[in-house]
Structures are given as C-alpha cells and as structure tokens.
Amino acid sequence: MSASAADSKGPDVSVRPGIRDLEDAPPFVAPRTRLFEFRAQLTPTQTALFAAAGVVVFFLIWQLGHAYTSEANQKFLPSPVQVLTALYTLFAEKNFISDVLKSSYRVFASFTLAALVAIPIGLTMGSFKSVRAMLGAIVSAWRYLPAASFIPLLLVWFGPDDTSKLALLFLGVIFFLIALIVDNTDAVPNEFIEAALTMGASRKTVLTEIVVPAAAPAIMDSLRNMIAVCWTYLVIAEIVGAQDGIGAVMMRAGRFLNVDVIMAGILMIGILGVVTDILFRVAARLAMPWAFKR
C-alpha cells in the first residue's frame, strides 16, 4: 500500500491516550476560592462566621477606645461592659421594655401609614407619565425639606402627644419612599407591558398583574431600607414633650451626663433595627418566593 493511500485513511488511532494513560494523569484539583472573591456565594455557616467576626471587631475597637481614653474622660466613653450593664439595669429596674414597645409602636405605625400612601402613589407615577409630570415636582421639592424643621409646626397643630411624633416620622420617610417606588416601577421592562397590551390586557390588568408583581421585590427592598430611616428619626421625634420611649430615656440621661444610659439607648435602637431588617427579609421570602428561587 502506498504512503498516499495510508494517509488517506486518516490519523493513526494508536497514538490516542488510552485508559492507562488517563489513570496516570494527575488528579483534578479545583481552584481555591479566595477569601475576598467578587460576588462569591457564601454558605450560611460562612455568613454567620463573618457576621460574628464583624461584631467582635466592633466591640474590640470600642473597648480599645475606652482603654486608651484618659481616666478622667472615660466616663464619656464607657466600655461595652458598662453599657451592657446599663442596658440590663434599664430592663430589670426601670421598666425599659415599655419604652421599647412605645417607640416600636411609633415607628411601625407611622411607617405603615407612609407605606399605604406611598405605594399606590409611586406605582401610579411610575406607570403613567402624565401623573409623574403632575406630582413629580412636588415630591422632589418635599424630599429636600428636613423633617425636623416641622417640629414647631406639628407641636402647634397636634400638641406634644403621640400624633405629632407619628406625623414627624411619617413626613421623614413618605416622600423618599414615593421616589424610590417610582424608580422601582419604572425599572419594570417595557417588553412585559407591551406583550400584555398586545394580547389585549386592560390597563388595570397590566398594572395589577404585570407591573405590581414585577416591581414588588424591589419595592420590598425600598421599604426595608426606608424603615431604617424611620428609626433614625425616632430620637428627634421623642425629644420634645415625650414622657416615654427610647428617645425620652436618652434625653433624661443626657441631663445628668449618664453616658452609659445614652449609649445603651443607641445600642437598643441598633438591635431593634437589625431585628426589623431580618423581619423584612423573612417576610419578603415568604410573600414573594419567585424572586428568590433563582
């Protein structure tokens, strides 16, 4: 057989690696995952460990700050143990639980009312350009007005009772919340709306069955972020004329320079904020499972 005929039969299969060659190959080793990898997925255990490490580092820096403060000024920066002791004393001896419940009521009641107003307005503005043109300037202008500037006016209108405090917390978040929901609604892909209209859906159907479910996860995130702002306004709302609440306890402690009690109140607000954030995350997973399946 000529060489040209042998070449025409194709490559020699005898040179291909066999089973023995594959067995002799080095085992596959997966690449190591770096500690700080961009958008790496963490297991629940890793997430808990990182969270614990963050808390430990925070309290360690706090303790070092207290230790390196001069002894004459250490009362103005108490240690974590002193603040936790003050927090325990507030609950055990000062009926602090009633103040915590009162402040929680003010935050959740005012924020619920703000959400009930902001969600339909934001959805309507995000869905219909004419409504956005009519209300957009008003919402934008009110966002730049500090809520604390309304305290004298609210005291004149409602007096130093709960109504003025709820109104202040309401004004502190309502216009920011409307603006965020407008953006969330505007982010719904136009293809979804156009496809529904092409198939003959009414505007009400498009709004309730297309826009609302598509924007709901983002709106829930906006609610979760804005209730944190509501917590930050709590102390301002409870400064004037408040007889109960975390802010009132902190203001009374400030008159006597009880810095450990003041910091205990700040720590309590932080704890309540974390609990609120967790509740919103759980509620979002239960109410909108389709947003988390992927």
Could you characterize what this model shows?
The protein has helices spanning 3-8, 19-24, 44-67, 80-93, 96-127, 129-143, 151-158, 162-186, 190-198, 203-232, 234-237, 246-255, 259-287. Helix content is 72%, strand content 0%. The chain has a domain at 96-291: MetI-like (MetI-like fold, Orthogonal Bundle). The radius of gyration is 30 Å and the shape is flat. Helix 5 (96-127) runs antiparallel to helix 6 (129-143), helix 6 crosses helix 8 and helix 12 packs antiparallel against helix 13 (259-287). The protein is mostly helical and 294 residues long. The protein contains 13 helices and no strands.
Q: In angstroms, what separates the terminal alpha carbons?
A: 62 Å
Describe the global form.
flat
Strand content: under 5%
Indicate the radius of gyration in whole angstroms.
30 Å
Count the strands? 0
Describe the structure using short key phrases.
294 residues, mainly alpha, MetI-like fold, 13 helices, 0% strand, flat
